[in-house]
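User: Last request for today: this protein with heme C, please.
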Amino acid sequence: MKRLALALALLATAAVARADEAPALFSQKCAVCHGKDGKGTPAGQKMGAKDLTALKLSHEDLVKDISNGQGKMPAFKGKLTDAQIESLAKYVKGGLK
Ligand code: HEC
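Assistant: Here's the final one, the structure of the complex with heme C:
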């Protein structure tokens, strides 16, 4: 029983760590085109990137777009784990805060 509690505690910590990972992941993998504020770097805007903070997409659509890419945006499925894509989608949905 103690062991189970410990395992659950570890899982909870891992989930929190994953959620907190989104800002760092975003600046590593996304900010080149989208800018740290999500509004798009000049290069990103030239490729057609829109202001990510103004999107009205559902969480599911965000996950799909990040996984499969779109237009000049590369697909991230296989480069990031599903959990990382999920947490990035949440981060974008939350206005990059
Ligand atoms: C090489 C540049 C580039 C990188 C890197 C990049 N994107 Fe994009 N992204 C784009 C472009 C360009 C678009 C616009 C695509 C279109 O509509 O043609 C876009 C669109 C999007 C959209 C909106 C899709 C829609 O339906 O309007 C989301 C959400 C998004 N990107 C998230 C991310 C996330 C999260 C990352 C990092 C994991 C990322 N992008 C990395 C260039 C990039």
